[in-house]
Amino acid sequence: MKLICAPMATLSHPGFRIITEKFGGCDEYYTEMINAPSLIHGGQFEKFYIDPAPVPEKIVWQLTGKSAEPMIEAAALVAEIGGIGVDLNMGCSAPEIYNSGAGIAWMIKDIKETEALVKGVRSVLDAYEHSSGIKRRFSVKCRLGDENYTDDAFFSFTDMLVQNGVEQLALHPRTRKEKYRDKPRWNYAQKLAERYPSVSIIVNGDICDRNSFEKVKAVCPDCKGAMIGRMAVQKPWIFAELAKSNDSEKKQIDLLLLGLDFIDAVEKYQPPEFYKTRLQRFFAYYCTNFSFAHYCRTQLLNSKSIEESRNILREYFDKVPSDRFKYSY
Hints:
Layout: E1 2-5, H1 14-21, E2 28-30, E3 34-35, H2 36-40, H3 46-49, E4 59-64, H4 68-79, E5 85-90, H5 95-100, H6 105-108, H7 111-132, E6 137-142, H8 151-163, E7 168-171, H9 187-195, E8 200-204, H10 210-219, E9 225-228, H11 230-234, H12 238-243, E10 251-254, H13 255-269, H14 272-286, H15 293-301, H16 306-319, E11 325-328
Parallel strand pairs: 1-2, 1-9, 2-4, 3-4, 4-5, 5-6, 6-7, 7-8, 8-9
Antiparallel strand pairs: 10-11
Helix pairs in contact: 1-13, 4-7, 13-14, 13-16
């Protein structure tokens, strides 16, 4: 199975990819959602969303928007930058995204409207390939649908995607309102793989260690990849961990150095306006590795500056030196 890093708002940026690559990285990195209207109108911060560093060849551009035309135009723009291909976000269920008409709203709108979007993106990617000789893959990330979804409705929707040229489907098998406490229905990814043998089906949801990864592979033997999000933030080495055999020699991870490296990368690749949110979101998960996670997390979330964040980390490991080194993968 391919190992893929999920699109995560405020997290799927060059700084995070840099520290993940230190452990060998993964096969594909989906970007955080790129707002299509902002991109095509030259928004102030859009250049930071489309920076493919440090591995342009592994990037999948994920687009979001509430209407078709800006997303089609944005697909043409990012196709020219590079990367593996273009992904349409049809799975984000955050209320502000759904209520705006974006994310999972595309699964609930009139099917003709969504089909027009898919056909439009397929058309611009085909045009780019015809003019450049370079192929960009077309993918969609989705969920099962709204709370009243049915198998017929779900598979009718995915049939439409595949019939209109979608080549990879990443499924987070939960409904719009289901949160992480509800178990993902991995078997739906396997059903997609059996239904569309020529399409790359990616399963997403609750893959957090080797045990859960092996369970996913058992349930979804025909899926081509596994997508990991939150756990990749807590453990940026998880892809290396899953790629290794069980009897591989364990390696030492310096959590202080890794945290400082992340801060350095954010400072290098993100604008000052983004420092706070990028650091807060990362350390909300990363501090889970610490014995006194709540204490350190609270300190970092309340940090007033990027240098203060560095000092908080250093002071924590001065006080709890036993937390600094971890053995894994």
